[in-house]
Amino acid sequence: MTELAAVKAALKSQAVETPSWAYGNSGTRFKVFAQQGVPRSPWEKLDDAAQVHAFTGVAPTVALHIPWDRVDDYAALARHAEDRGLRLGTINSNTFQDDAYRLGSVCHPDAAVRRKAVDHLLECVDIMDATGSRDLKLWFADGTNYPGQDDIRARQDRLAEALAEVYGRLGEEQRMLLEYKLFEPAFYTTDVPDWGTAYAHCLKLGPKAQVVVDTGHHAPGTNIEFIVATLLREGRLGGFDFNSRFYADDDLMVGAADPFQLFRILHEVVRGDGFGSGVAFMLDQCHNIEAKIPAIIRSVMNVQEATAKALLVDRAALADAQAAGDVLGANAVLMDAYNTDVRPLLREVREEMGLDPDPLAAYARSGWAEKIVAERVGGEQAGWGA
Amino acid sequence: MTELAAVKAALKSQAVETPSWAYGNSGTRFKVFAQQGVPRSPWEKLDDAAQVHAFTGVAPTVALHIPWDRVDDYAALARHAEDRGLRLGTINSNTFQDDAYRLGSVCHPDAAVRRKAVDHLLECVDIMDATGSRDLKLWFADGTNYPGQDDIRARQDRLAEALAEVYGRLGEEQRMLLEYKLFEPAFYTTDVPDWGTAYAHCLKLGPKAQVVVDTGHHAPGTNIEFIVATLLREGRLGGFDFNSRFYADDDLMVGAADPFQLFRILHEVVRGDGFGSGVAFMLDQCHNIEAKIPAIIRSVMNVQEATAKALLVDRAALADAQAAGDVLGANAVLMDAYNTDVRPLLREVREEMGLDPDPLAAYARSGWAEKIVAERVGGEQAGWGA
Amino acid sequence: MTELAAVKAALKSQAVETPSWAYGNSGTRFKVFAQQGVPRSPWEKLDDAAQVHAFTGVAPTVALHIPWDRVDDYAALARHAEDRGLRLGTINSNTFQDDAYRLGSVCHPDAAVRRKAVDHLLECVDIMDATGSRDLKLWFADGTNYPGQDDIRARQDRLAEALAEVYGRLGEEQRMLLEYKLFEPAFYTTDVPDWGTAYAHCLKLGPKAQVVVDTGHHAPGTNIEFIVATLLREGRLGGFDFNSRFYADDDLMVGAADPFQLFRILHEVVRGDGFGSGVAFMLDQCHNIEAKIPAIIRSVMNVQEATAKALLVDRAALADAQAAGDVLGANAVLMDAYNTDVRPLLREVREEMGLDPDPLAAYARSGWAEKIVAERVGGEQAGWGA
Amino acid sequence: MTELAAVKAALKSQAVETPSWAYGNSGTRFKVFAQQGVPRSPWEKLDDAAQVHAFTGVAPTVALHIPWDRVDDYAALARHAEDRGLRLGTINSNTFQDDAYRLGSVCHPDAAVRRKAVDHLLECVDIMDATGSRDLKLWFADGTNYPGQDDIRARQDRLAEALAEVYGRLGEEQRMLLEYKLFEPAFYTTDVPDWGTAYAHCLKLGPKAQVVVDTGHHAPGTNIEFIVATLLREGRLGGFDFNSRFYADDDLMVGAADPFQLFRILHEVVRGDGFGSGVAFMLDQCHNIEAKIPAIIRSVMNVQEATAKALLVDRAALADAQAAGDVLGANAVLMDAYNTDVRPLLREVREEMGLDPDPLAAYARSGWAEKIVAERVGGEQAGWGA
Q1: Where are the alpha helices (DSSP H) in D39-151?
Q2: Which residues of A touch D100 (CB under 8 A)?
Q3: Its Enzyme Commission number (chains A, B, C, D) (predicted)?
């Protein structure tokens, strides 16, 4: 296989998981601007996700969020997905929207609240059994707002205990993906603020516990690709929650704020043999003001473009320049790939996959946007955070 | 008057405005945790604010937020306040919660939306006439989420036009306070991101336009007291929205995250003759997880303590050390005031004002908290952001 | 003229000023790694700058730094430049390396130190008269390290007084470019920390006072292109000091850390009619570990590529999408230009200018690097900061 | 023993290590302002350190930096220290000032450079054997300035290999303290950027490898006390490099920028039983513009004050409020200790130790400052970074 053929094959095999909640309404603490045609049920979210996969060809799975996507019959939901060419993906837990969780969930000072939270996590594993999902993604809103509010260290002990119980419940092929986040909604400490904390917990749990990197969850200036390289070296990179930020956890479309950073991250994934391995590529975004389905299609395309550039890096030339200590030469090899316009290549890839080379235009022509606005009348729209 | 007597007199004359919305429920985009006993109307918010003033003696005015605090009869509302020893304070506009404002208000590309927003601002001045408020505080959620989304510069032109119309409507004794904010809810640009932008607009408008500094609205590392000193030097510091942040616009209790910074800010206010002038001291906080009235009392006390320390700075000794280039000596003079425990002094001040020296304990004993939980049943609780 | 011809013409007319000090050694506080062949005098710096211009065609002027580039005969220096196809550019003052400036220069508490500093600035204008330079660029290291160390506001008064004296000395066609910087070498306050402070001083001085934006001098998260758009709208953007940063004032090659940001900045320049106007495009970089001349050539090329992309933005389509409130469509128009590989276009431009299409390869083949290593033996190498 | 007696006993037993290099000249990349009376040799640095200990009573050890403090006879140096009531403390390596280290030391692509660096580290252990030092502190300036410059992951492999060799050389009672730093002097990646990376390496090395927290080495917004609590929980907190920052690694006096943060850090140390254990309290500061010995005395006092406040926290009341979920109450317990003026207590402690209650005034009266200015004439002053 020629090198270009290998790049194309890799791009065709890429899989980006889209999150069910991104199809619903979302907003900031100030306002949720509702959009027309938004799904009113998990079933309709899958219908929309199927559109994204139909036009991109690389978004075959959908992440669910419990309880937002709770249904009576997960097997039926899985069939609904399959009928549309999709599979159910990662199960995301929610331990931040019940009134009991005001001061935390698995780290709460009250054992009864912790029990409730752990029971929810165990229920999520039950759902994974039903859906055939591989990954349980855990993000905890736990933390404190004021110095002294709770005992930072005791909360780590409680966290470790909860994780251990859930880990013990995982099946042979199931994984626990532990997400970290510097702040929000907690504003003094979060209980898993950084990759180091997530990594330390995963180490103690075992090989099925992996760290997930949300690209919006770091302090300003953090070098995310370094973390990616390090976690791959340690065998602990479970996956990504992709999105963009300029300031905090802005949850904009991936690749919208710093496409060069996204490229550098994917370069480390490729270099660390993380592409095509178990590393999950997931979106976690909020389309607060823009049309949701096109925004998700665009996001998938942005991931594809960054991946294509990363695959095009001349690694032999790069290694030579690095070994020679040629700072400018090595940088130039990387920049040469980044500066390449890979859109023609991706159009070719899509045509070879039997797709329209321009997914956004094809979606716009499809009439789906008009159809859902017309049909999804009445009922309650799904909302992120509700 | 001895120096200590002057400090006490200044502390007794201090006035901290509390915001009506801080008495209602608030939260993050993830969840609003409702609390029991929360007010269900502007009238009940004033009842709570009266408690804060009753126990601290230095919170005589309450800021209103339109439309959250819209009533049919503002004169009646003002009487309700006066009956409780309060006055109505700053009027805050809201141009971010109507569906029309998805892409902005006064900066929106559509002239009809801008008209709607300006009309709201003009209505706020009408209300000021009715309430006798001096200040119109303008914070705009306007901005963009994606590069290219709108024309940054054209939005400035639209903003200038809107401000000019509203400024022209102000009465002789009324002021416009223009607030800036780096980000949120807009995540690429905001239309008034920094003090420089607010200042430039105020300059063009005239002397009744002043900049308001929200202590949570800056980029990491920004030296806020420098901005305070500069605005005072320029005669353009209209006031403060006090709160605390560790990360972004966390809206925690003022003095909770960096009490030394609060002291430094108040030192510049005192040094710049801003204390006792027209500079408004306002709180703008969200008590998402803690009890609201005690949190506000505590916040007022934190402002008092920082003010007391600032008033205690030995300014002659400081000036001498500064003139001598004595870096450590000058710093030591400032730190000496900061390290002083001013709580005994403030207890004395309160006793001289006929108050309980411990406002929080006195409030706890008063039974108000239990009373509102018992009585405020049914109806709809007020919520920040709703 | 076709649109493409106009883009090419604009690119051919671009002028990027290179700084004399970037050809000398530089480093961090930890270490200056000396390189072979580095110039030993202003004359040799011009020789190197001539290479950059010879291979890029768009670097016709060189900024000088006084006293680093002090010579007895500036007319002779100007002729030396002209003989090599160059002109002398902006004069940069230095008020941070004399022992007298430990606590500041024009803001120092001691009037004698201020006098010394102002005299130096006046000397710089004398030099401008001799060199024919248009711009005096002022960056002040002034500031304080500790709270209380000096009076923030009094320092502003001293600054204003010094600037006024120097401004009064400017000739009809001369300008004062005032640079701001958040921190370093002062670590508590700087006396011109942000664009607002620089702008406020410039306003009071008059139209010949303009703000200069160094792309590495902002707090994390600052939207630089907003500042650019605002200063252009106010008629106060004097120019840029281009470089790159990941963390602080890293002074890396422009375009190396966030090429998308550089593009957005240049988009606002083009949109605000700042291209081809009096806005100066200057580099201000430290090539601590990489070869200096190739790094400067690369930097010039990076500015060219970002400019080319900005010129290619379909502004009519952009305006239409913006007016329609089409968030994704407007963003897509901008991204389409950014994602274009403009290197072929620039190769064409260079060929039409009679240059080698690949400046870096041509420079490498030229033998200049080997020549200066061989010839510049003995004497003292020029160093940034020395 | 009463509680107060216990607090006093703890304060008397505290030991803060001062760094030899803080007595010498230091500066920024822009300028080193030399001060009069600065030591010209390791012997004179110890003389100055003895003054700090004489007046504070809690600075009994001095950290050395190799090669800056290289002497022919370390036993003689140790006796010189003992004669002055001091002991030699931590040995700090230096792998950033040799020309060979332009692209790194232990992570350099060239094996010969790595060998040279490791040999230096092994030499440091030899010196530890001679001085009786317990700790080898490793900070690496290694990193890259440009994306692609070197292989991030391969550098980790090289780092691990070097650390393992040095670890193997440690004696039974010796420790390796691994420091992390986000940036500077490398501006794209550093090879040990965060506590997670340092921790991961220490885990693989063994129990004698511990993480050291420099309070100036984090991204903006990082919650340092969380890291402290976590490392203590993991048994991997080797010690602190104390200093203050407003922006980057400003290296100001500890407690000068955010005294509340310092208190919170020490609260976690006390809570995690890290006080009086093997956790080393070291200063690592640069007194660029202020008098050096008084600045170090002041820094030691700042650590004492924060420690005293941390020791005064009513831990039983705190635990009760935390268990009850009383957010404001728990915060109030912590703030009560912080707001206490502990300077009278520390004056008492000093008097009980036979010291002057005011170390700075006593030092000023001692005549030492005048003596060293008069006597230390000729020779070459010691400089940080040289």
Answers
A1: 42-56, 74-83, 111-131
A2: none
A3: 5.3.1.14
Q: Are B49 and B62 in contact (CB under 8 A)?
A: yes
User: What was the pLDDT predicted at C385?
Assistant: 58
pLDDT of residue C72: 97
How many other C-beta atoms are found inside a 10 Å radius of the C-beta of residue B386? 14
B146 contacts A253? CB cut-off 8 A: yes
Sketch out chain B's domains with CATH numbers: 11-311+356-375 (3.20.20.150)
CA distance C258 to C223: 12
Three-class secondary structure assignment of B222-247? CCHHHHHHHHHHHCCEEEEEECECCC
Residue C225 with chain B: CB contacts under 8 Å? 152
Position A288 scores a pLDDT of 97
Residues facing A242 on adjacent strands: A283
Q: Which residue does chain B place closest to A28, by CA atoms?
A: B29
State the pLDDT confidence band at A385, using cuts at 50, 70 and 90: low
Torsion angle defined by CA atoms of residues A291, A293, A295 and A296, in that order, rounded to the nearest 10 degrees: 160
Q: State the DSSP H helix or E strand holding residue B177, giving kind and residue range, or none if neither.
A: strand B175-179
**Residue of B105, B247, B285, B286 best to disrupt the A interface, most CBs of A under 10 A:** B247
DSSP class of residue C71 equals: -
Rounded CA gap, C28 and D28, in Å?
8
Chain B positions with Cβ closer than 8 Å to A? 26-31, 33-34, 96-97, 99, 101-103, 141, 145-147, 182-185, 187-188, 220, 245-248, 250, 252-253, 256-257, 288-290, 385
pLDDT in tens, C154-207: 999 999 999 999 999 999 999 999 999 999 999 999 999 999 999 999 999 999
Cα D238 from Cα C173, distance rounded (Å)? 62
Give the mean pLDDT of B244-270: 98
Query: What pLDDT is recorded for position B385?
Result: 58
Residue with tokens 């439309």: B67
Element (H, E) at A78: helix A74-83
Residues contacting residue D174 through CB under 8 Å, at least 6 positions apart: D125, D128, D133, D134, D135, D136, D208
User: Which chain D residue's Cα is nearest to A181?
Assistant: D222
- Report chain C's terminal Cα–Cα distance, integer Å: 49
Hunting for tokens 């605002």 — which residue is that?
Answer: C230
* Backbone phi, psi, residue D78, to 5°: -65, -40
Nearest CA in chain B to C248: B221
Q: B189 and C325 in contact by Cβ < 8 A?
A: no
Query: Which chain A residue has the Cα nearest residue C293?
Result: A328
Q: Identify the DSSP state of A340.
A: S
Asked if D99 lies within 8 A of C28 by C-beta distance, the reply is no
Partners of D203 on chain A (C-beta within 8 Å) are 203
Distances (CA, A) of B171 to B94, B122, B209, B282, C75: 20, 12, 12, 22, 62
Please name which of C238, C357, C242 lies closest in space to residue C307, comparing C-alpha atoms: C242
Residue contact D341–B341, C-beta within 8 A = yes
Average pLDDT, chain A: 97
Cβ-proximal residues to C172 (8 Å cutoff; 6+ apart), any chain: none
> Which positions in chain B touch D247 (Cβ < 8 Å)?
221
* B218 neighbourhood in chain C, CB within 8 Å: 219
Please enumerate residues of A whose Cβ is less than 8 A from a Cβ of C. 220-221, 223, 246-247, 256, 258-261, 289-291, 294-295, 298, 305, 327-328, 331-332, 338-341, 343, 360
Q: How far apart are CA D94 and CA B232, in angstroms?
A: 47
Contact residues, chain A, for D193 at CB < 8 Å: 223, 226
CA distance B241 to chain D (A): 21
Summarize pLDDT for B317-354 with one digit per residue, the tens: 999 999 999 999 999 999 999 999 999 999 999 999 99
Classify the C-alpha dihedral A222-A228-A229-A235 as positive or negative: positive
